[in-house]
Amino acid sequence: MKEIRFGIIGLGLMGRELASAVARWCHLTDVTVRPVITAICDKAPPPGRVEWFTANFPTIRQVCADYRELLANPDVDAVYCAVPHHLHREMYCAIIESGKHFLGEKPFGMDRAANDAILASIRKTPGKIVRCSSQLPFTPAVQKIFGRIEKGFFGRIFEVNTGFLHSSDLNPNKAINWKRMVKINGEYGVMGDLGMHACHVPFRAGWQPRRVRAVLSKIVKERPDGKGGMAPCETWDNATLLVDMLDPRSGEAFPWTLRTQRIAPGEKNTWYLEIYGTRGAVKFSTKNPKRLNLLEYDGGEQVWQQEDVGFEPAFKTITGDIFEFGFPDAIQQMLAAFFHEAAHGKPLTPAAGCATPEEAALSHRLFTAALASHKNGTTEPV
Q1: CA 211, CA 190: separation in Å to the nearest integer?
Q2: Does some domain include residue 237?
Q3: In this model, does residue 168 exceed pLDDT 90?
Q4: Predicted confidence band at 42 (pLDDT cuts at 50, 70, 90)?
């Protein structure tokens, strides 16, 4: 089995999630490549964080605070980086130009100018796999939906709805963090933080956004600053986008409603997808990750059916297909997809491929147009 030496920059929540997926690599049964964590980097890790990594991964040979030291290490073949958005431009460009395979967190640049710079680095340094993190489309039910898209199951598509909903920020006493600060998070606000997840399936399906009308909301205007005072919340909490989409297969347009919300009462990391067509429709939500709602229309009764989808991911595992699939499994599937591409130069299947830089760039075009749409009260070209 081919080994790829792996470095992690940013030892926060997602850095640990990906490391955990590597630790459970034996869970996968049909992969041809294995990541080996050899280096970690964080400028200011929380107490005990470095020790968590080194205790659980004896293969780590480098611990550093400066990401440039990790990039200079010849014993690192691929890098995952999870840092605040304002650091993407500098760090992502440096990682790409170091000649290593790279998996970065969304939005792949704080704004469109930063994303353009990252794309320029990719063009300047070809030959390596560069991908954007987006794990939820690796859920087995969504992989089945991808298959139906490819087979033309839906007929003429006339409506699509996607979204990613959180609820924890409904609490006004939650302390402010960098995601509430424009200088660190960027003006996209919630769109930059959650939007790529909601864009992944429509973009991978080849549907093309043409125009957008956006309504953006700032709901909690200030939060405790951790010093006894209050600080203003500068970024958007919620975003609703109505997008005019073109389906190249049919040549027909349809509306796509995209919702990203940090204040969605009662929701805990809920991702959903709905597709409606003249011959078929599907509805899926991670609220019930086994349940795939299907309607197939052949001229008779229009009846919604429910299919329970088991543990049937793109990359096979030791888990029996009768069991349930969860968030850590989606992370591992995404990481398996990244390393499969790094080893073989192409995805296992079109559906089982990580989000590409081109798809991330398309999200920047959409979110930039959405900012203008909300500001001007207009429908903007994408």
Answers
A1: 20
A2: yes
A3: no
A4: very high
